[in-house]
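User: For my dataset I need records formatted as: sequence, then structure tokens, nothing else. Please produce one.
Assistant:
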Amino acid sequence: MTIKESLSELRGRIDDLQKRLGDKESEFSKDERVPAEHRAKVDAMQAQAEAVKEKLPTEENSVWDAVKHEVQRDMDALAQDFEHTVSYIDAHFREQK
């Protein structure tokens, strides 16, 4: 895999995660069972995703070599936090009758 492919692939992952975050933000905002602090956490993840995206260079060059591992760690942590948070909200607030 080349650096360009890795950067392009990571941009795609961030875009996909931002779409999923947006979908959940919209869904949770309409569901009164989801507490405000949990909705706020998902909202904050949107800002985190944007911050990760801003770390990416616009052109593939040596800057990417310097930040690619940091960006990958940030992206992995954000994706894991998203999955955990959504699962927690669904299990504790939305699945209740």
